[in-house]
Structure to design on (929 residues):
């Protein structure tokens, strides 16, 4: 038996218009914990989907060698049969069923065509012991916490005779104590000879648990680090993750910053899903007129949650905090109230939250402020057409006419329509959440130009983005968020990818105290 | 082909439906040796279906918003019996009774709307409950009896325009109504055209516009003259008049007003609508309430037409209304549909019913054919949507697709 359990060679995976992975190679040794690091969208999850057969053999190019043999998985069932089990970030458990039922779902113990509950529960108890969970196997999944659910997932994997366990962001939803317990369990599995691949944004955890690290950047594997041998620390990983060159991808721009327009104090929001979990922990920030302020944070850090909560409390349960516009305290409890107060919010997921894809361009453009072109609640279609036509020209949206359906436009042009929709509301504060996700470089440049024009005209602009180069190129100031708390604020001159990444991944005592 | 599209507008679905309706009428006209387009029969089609079409107007809004209403038949029956009893036992004037009936419908609608919009129970469940509850209300209040109604009330279901002016051999008011409509259509077309030209948004040629307007005007005049030339005393039915007015009002509301836009927005993408400042709960509430009000009106029209309110009025109406809406091009997932499309869809069903009846086809076979037509119409829709993606059927038929679209539509519907 060789000491390499898995080798992926020159994996390339293309989606229409995008190369998600390009010649990615990695080697995983038997019995190690191997971490995969990379920025959001670097291609980590795609790589794991290729490995586990979610993207079947034939839809990618390259070779996968598992246990010395080339493998061609066509679906998850085949990869699981070979002993590769993936535990996704969003757990695949059925809340209404019991722990035992979930563990054996699809692999039930059957006697004469009927489920053998005695054997099921006995075996479940055994597996739960392995993962250090002492709840009764009959407990319903919905009645145990996320941390324990994660352990049930692992128990389920153990039942399948797992040899390579893949954990995608296993601690993202866990608190510190549960995270440590989980890391301890991974360590124990390693001693039992189970190889683990772990994807995580929490670099301190990776440093603590991993034996080696493969870094993926822009769909390419850049390097593999040996944690013990190379004396890898967080700074070293960050350098690998962000080490791309910055070229002039932004229009020339001189900011013209005025008085403070928005100020947020002690903004606190509780998660609507997990009771007691705070997604915004007493956040404080301000934005001046004519200023572009960036918000950096890893996925799940609470950036979107904070912005949506400010935008008429459209997310989560409001637990306190004050919002000042032009020095006056306001209370905006609904989206219409926020729009009337002059706030616009370009959502992060265009297709799910931002657009009605059945609609055409002109109706979309005016949809957030129909009042503006209506008399006694009757829409003036000529004014509507003229407004849409005006934005089509000024934003250079590529479309034959404004009667075209938005579903037919490319990502960049869809984003321009969304921008037009919010510009039409005449906002004083425009919040842009991932404004350039999934659009090509040329369209990005145009969007940056529009954002800068907005700021120049005296509007306050907030940009939330997972792409650090974008934030660095666009923002006058950047706030960092980690686990719901604002951990720092850097001015344009002092911010670098390295120090931003550090602030985004560490909840230091100083910043925790400062934001509390 | 492209010229045809210019004339009838770009919407393949509606285009296909209107063609299907015309083709269906022509087919039955030939097969029945001209019975279908006899004045009495046309009047009969309007009279016998306008209450379903009134409900289809409310139903299309409900379906656009992404819901469904199964209770309409029972609501219609419950309102019908209350109105009939009010007039019989208290001698209430029929106009007042109609108003009370509409108010009762609004109350029922508020009840259902509350559960759907503010509590968040799926409309399917709420209105399934309503279907049982209000059927029970009808039978409880009416003690399962049939209650006759006075003659003056019958005008809203079985009345005709009066004969006025000189004897021209036609019903003068009906002809006048037709002429007014034609004038409105022509003026409207000219105004729209002028506006479009001014802002540089004119689609299609001026000739296409005139041909289209001419065809619509011709159709309106033909129907008006046909109905005006019937047996003396008959003319354009009052129920048809109510339906026409509602089509105009709701057509306007759904396309031209803020609330109309909001209904489409909520049905198309509820999250996006909410994040654009649409109060989706209020929209859902109003849509459900409106449906029950129209169901109440439909119930009263039916009672007026059949001279009495009975314990089994309105059984199965919800299915006819829903079928009309889906044949008319609405999407099960919400966000798509038009008032006029649903009316055309309802008329397709009505003509089908009527034509098969005239041909002496039994109720059993009629049911089967109607069911298949519904499936075919929606399948045509789904097929159209699949055209974006490569499918086996799509690949096989791609070559001939362009030239045959309207014919295919006609055959499938």
């Amino acid at each position: 038996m060789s000491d390499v359990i898995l080798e992926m060679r020159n994996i390339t995976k293309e989606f229409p218009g995008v190369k998600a992975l390009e010649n990615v190679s990695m080697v995983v040794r038997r019995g190690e914990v191997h971490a995969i690091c990379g920025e959001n969208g670097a291609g980590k999850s795609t790589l794991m989907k290729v490995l586990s057969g979610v993207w079947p053999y034939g839809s990618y190019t390259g070779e996968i060698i598992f246990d010395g043999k080339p493998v061609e998985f066509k679906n998850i069932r085949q990869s699981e049969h070979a002993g590769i089990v993936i535990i996704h970030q969003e757990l695949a458990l059925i809340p209404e069923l019991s722990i035992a039922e979930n563990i054996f779902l699809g692999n039930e113990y059957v006697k004469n065509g009927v489920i053998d509950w005695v054997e099921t529960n006995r075996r479940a108890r055994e597996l739960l012991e392995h993962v250090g969970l002492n709840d009764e196997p009959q407990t319903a999944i919905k009645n145990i916490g996320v941390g324990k659910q994660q352990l049930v997932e692992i128990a389920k994997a153990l039942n399948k005779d797992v040899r390579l366990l893949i954990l995608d962001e296993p601690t993202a939803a866990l608190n510190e104590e549960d995270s440590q317990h989980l890391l301890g369990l991974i360590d124990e599995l390693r001693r039992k000879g189970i190889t683990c691949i772990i994807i995580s944004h929490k670099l301190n955890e990776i440093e603590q648990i991993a034996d080696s690290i493969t870094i993926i950047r822009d769909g390419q594997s850049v390097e593999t680090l040996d944690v013990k041998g190379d004396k890898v620390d967080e700074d070293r990983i960050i350098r690998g993750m962000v080490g791309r060159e910055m070229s002039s991808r932004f229009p020339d721009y001189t900011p013209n910053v005025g008085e403070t327009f928005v100020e947020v104090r002690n903004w606190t929001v509780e998660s609507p899903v997990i009771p007691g979990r705070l997604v915004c922990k007493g956040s404080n920030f301000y934005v001046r007129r004519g200023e572009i302020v960036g918000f950096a944070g890893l996925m799940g850090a609470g950036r979107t949650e904070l912005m949506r909560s400010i935008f008429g409390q459209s997310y989560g349960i409001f637990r306190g905090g004050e919002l000042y516009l032009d020095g006056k305290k306001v209370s905006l409890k609904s989206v219409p109230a926020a729009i009337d107060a002059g706030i616009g919010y370009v959502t992060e997921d265009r297709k799910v939250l931002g657009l009605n894809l059945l609609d055409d361009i002109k109706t979309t453009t005016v949809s957030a402020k129909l009042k503006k072109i209506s008399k006694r609640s009757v829409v003036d279609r000529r004014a509507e057409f003229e407004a849409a036509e005006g934005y089509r020209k000024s934003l250079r949206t590529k479309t034959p006419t404004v009667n075209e359906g938005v579903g037919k436009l490319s990502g960049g042009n869809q984003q321009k329509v969304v921008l037009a929709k919010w510009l039409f509301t005449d906002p004083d504060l425009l919040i842009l959440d991932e404004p350039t996700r999934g659009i090509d470089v040329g369209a990005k440049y145009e969007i940056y130009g529009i954002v800068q024009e907005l700021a120049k005209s005296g509007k306050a602009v907030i940009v939330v983005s997972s792409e650090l180069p974008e934030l660095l190129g666009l923002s006058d100031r950047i706030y960092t968020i980690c686990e719901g708390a604002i951990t720092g604020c850097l001015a344009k001159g002092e911010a670098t990818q390295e120090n931003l990444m550090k602030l985004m991944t560490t909840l230091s005592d100083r910043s925790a105290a400062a934001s509390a | 082909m492209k010229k045809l599209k210019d004339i009838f507008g770009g919407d393949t679905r509606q285009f296909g439906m209107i063609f299907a309706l015309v083709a269906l009428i022509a087919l039955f006209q030939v097969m029945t040796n001209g019975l279908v387009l006899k004045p009495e029969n046309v009047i009969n089609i309007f009279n016998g279906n306008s209450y379903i079409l009134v409900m289809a107007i409310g139903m299309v809004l409900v379906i656009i918003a992404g819901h469904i209403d199964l209770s309409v038949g029972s609501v219609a029956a419950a309102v019908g019996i209350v109105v009939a009893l009010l007039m019989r036992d208290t001698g209430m004037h029929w106009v007042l009774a109609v108003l009370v009936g509409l108010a009762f419908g609004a109350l029922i609608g508020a009840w259902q709307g509350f559960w759907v919009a503010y509590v968040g129970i799926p409309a399917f469940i709420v209105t399934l409950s309503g279907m049982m509850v209000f059927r029970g209300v009808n039978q409880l209040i009416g003690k399962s009896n049939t209650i006759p109604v006075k003659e003056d009330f019958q005008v809203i279901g079985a009345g005709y325009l009066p004969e006025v002016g000189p004897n021209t051999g036609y019903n003068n008011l009906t002809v006048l109504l037709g002429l007014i409509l034609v004038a409105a259509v022509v003026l409207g077309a000219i105004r729209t055209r002028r506006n479009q030209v001014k802002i540089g948004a004119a689609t299609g040629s001026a000739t296409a516009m005139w041909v289209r307007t001419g065809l619509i005007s011709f159709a309106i005049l033909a129907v008006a003259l046909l109905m005006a030339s019937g047996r003396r005393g008959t003319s354009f039915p009052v129920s048809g008049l109510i339906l026409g007015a509602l089509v105009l009002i709701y057509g306007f509301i759904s396309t031209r007003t803020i609330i109309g836009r909001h209904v489409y927005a909520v049905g198309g993408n509820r999250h996006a609508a909410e994040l654009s400042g649409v109060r989706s709960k209020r929209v859902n509430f109003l849509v459900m309430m409106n449906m029950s009000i129209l169901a109440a009106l439909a119930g009263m029209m039916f009672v007026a037409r059949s001279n009495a309110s009975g314990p089994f009025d309105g059984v199965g109406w919800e299915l006819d209304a829903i079928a009309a809406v889906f044949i008319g091009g609405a999407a099960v997932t919400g966000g798509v549909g038009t008032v006029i499309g649903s009316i055309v869809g309802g008329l397709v069903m009505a003509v089908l019913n009527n034509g098969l009846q005239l041909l002496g086809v039994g109720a059993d076979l009629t049911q089967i054919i109607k069911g298949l037509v519904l499936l075919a119409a929606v399948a045509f829709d789904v097929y159209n949507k699949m055209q974006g993606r490569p499918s086996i059927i799509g690949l096989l038929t791609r070559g001939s697709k362009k030239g045959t679209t309207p014919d295919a539509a006609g055959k499938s519907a």
In short: The two ends of chain B are 20 Å apart (CA to CA).
